[in-house]
Design goal:
Layout (H helix, E strand, L loop, with lengths): L32 E3 L10 E3 L3 E3 L8 H10 L3 E8 H5 L3 H6 L10 E5 L3 H14 L3 E6 L4 H4 L11 H14 L5 E10 L2 E2 L1 H10 L4 E8 L10 H10 L4 E4 L5 H11 L3 E4 L9 H9 L10 H19 L1 H16 L5 H8 L6 H7 L48 H11 L3
Parallel strand pairs: 3-4, 3-11, 4-5, 5-6, 6-7, 7-9, 9-10, 10-11
Antiparallel strand pairs: 1-2, 7-8
Helix pairs in contact: 1-10, 1-11, 4-6, 6-7, 7-8, 9-10, 11-12, 13-14
This protein binds flavin mononucleotide (FMN).
């Protein structure tokens, strides 16, 4: 057991004070998340246990990271968002980001698009490829996207949202389709109830709620009460999202809100073993001790290897730079070696860069809730001129068409 200064020795649990007394799940307390009713075939009924979902994260939840997380636990591991236009035009990077492996089961893909024809075509093709779950991104707060009426602007217009979900559901056969939304644009323009109802009415199997507004971006505390409110309003499962940093947060969120499953975002960045801890607490076991620094280094190297296999040496190593900051966060002396880590040219450079750090240091409790990506920024959400005067409108916003436009969008989308 960890003997670090911050560890709670009275319980032997490595947790922050918020979670030191939280009991693990009792037998039968939670059930598997059920997505789809399987009326047509078995494929259409997904049972997810534990009821845990890796959040779609651009630049993060590619096959390399999904496969690593999956080795620790179980649940549903969603791809980063795949733009419909990029996918349909055969963009090479989009195809790589959408790629999977034969043993990735269930396979889950998040799509991004605001055109019902594109979405329908993409969904048909993904279903033919064998995808088991589809999610649509209606959370993206990036100005380039919302200014055109896409992403988190869509739920303002329930008829447009309905049209897009309908296009997906109608083309998905009985593969479950879920919708990911935010609370709304800002505190005076909350849309999650109407959006959730519209999605459910069109056959969405569940609604995921990132319990922050688009104006909030990723700052402040997620509003778990909004998740509870959506549970009251909808008769399909609600997936709660926001601030699952420790495994026990998931139990607290489900107990407090009654949601059917949790979506884990930044908490797992540089901490893929969080999915093992989540499986433990949902199965009624105390989670094991998190890895010490030496073990973290080995996990990080293994992750780097997977990225290199997926993207090739140059891109894989470049992608690994941000991950090294996340894996080493909070360990003594890590700030000192960060500059070197940001300049690595090979995976072996990682070992050299961290050689001087104490490899026996236990995982620091202070790092459990440390912000690893995004920050405390807030924004004024950009919407198209007159957008809020036509809320009954269901006209799809204009999206990117040419390959250049698509690439510019994909860059901007990075981080919805
Ligand atoms: C680096 C990064 C990329 C993200 N990309 C996406 C995305 O592609 N699609 C999406 O629906 N949400 C995306 N998100 C939002 C997360 O899925 C999640 O909703 C958000 O981080 C809140 O959960 P958390 O508080 O557990 O981090 C992204 C978040 C981060 C940090």
């Amino acid at each position: 057991m960890s003997t670090g200064p911050d560890a709670d020795s009275s319980h032997g649990r490595v947790a922050t004070p918020l979670n030191r007394e939280v009991p693990v799940a009792s037998p039968g307390e939670f059930g598997p998340l059920q997505l789809g009713d399987g009326r047509v075939s078995e494929r259409g009924q997904l049972r997810v246990w534990p009821p845990v979902i890796l959040a779609p994260m651009a630049g993060v939840t590619n096959l390399a990271f999904r496969s690593l997380c999956r080795e620790y636990g179980a649940g549903l591991y969603v791809s980063e968002m795949i733009t419909a236009r990029g996918y349909l035009m055969g963009n090479r990077l989009t195809a790589l980001l959408a790629s999977s492996a034969p043993d990735e089961k269930p396979r889950s893909v998040q799509v991004y698009g605001a055109d019902p024809v594109d979405l329908g075509e993409m969904v048909r093709s993904l279903v033919d490829e064998g995808v088991d779950h589809l999610d649509i991104n209606m959370v993206c707060p990036v100005p380039k996207v919302t200014r055109a009426g896409g992403g988190s602007a869509i739920p303002c217009k329930p008829k447009l949202l309905a049209r897009l979900v309908r296009a997906m559901v109608q083309n998905a056969g009985d593969v479950p389709v879920t919708v990911k939304i935010r609370k709304g644009i800002h505190d005076e323009l909350l849309t999650f109830e109407q959006a959730g109802l519209a999605a459910a009415a069109e056959g969405a199997s569940a609604v995921g709620l990132h319990a922050r507004t688009a104006a909030q971006l990723y700052s402040g505390e997620a509003d778990w009460d909004a998740i509870g409110r959506l549970v009251e309003v909808l008769d399909v499962p609600v997936l709660g999202n926001g601030d699952i940093w420790e495994s026990f947060d998931a139990l607290r969120m489900m107990r407090r809100t009654g949601c059917a499953g949790v979506i884990v975002g930044r908490g797992c960045l540089g901490r893929p073993w969080l999915f093992g801890e989540l499986a433990d607490v949902f199965d009624g076991r105390e989670p094991g001790v998190p890895p010490d620094f030496g073990q973290v280094v080995e996990i990080m190297m293994g992750h780097g290897q997977r990225l290199v296999e997926l993207f090739g040496e140059t891109v894989g190593v470049r992608q690994m730079r941000k991950w090294t900051a996340w894996y080493t966060k909070g360990f003594r002396g890590s700030a000192r070696v960060r500059g070197r880590l940001m300049r690595i040219e090979s995976l072996e450079d990682i070992r050299t860069a961290v050689a001087e750090l104490d490899h026996s240091e236990p995982f620091p409790v202070t790092a459990l809730r440390a912000m690893r990506a995004k920050g405390s920024k807030v924004q004024t959400v950009k919407l198209p001129e007159g957008y809020l005067k036509e809320l009954d409108d269901d006209t799809p916003p204009k999206g990117p068409r040419t390959l250049d436009e698509i690439e510019a969008w994909e860059k901007a989308l990075n981080g919805g």
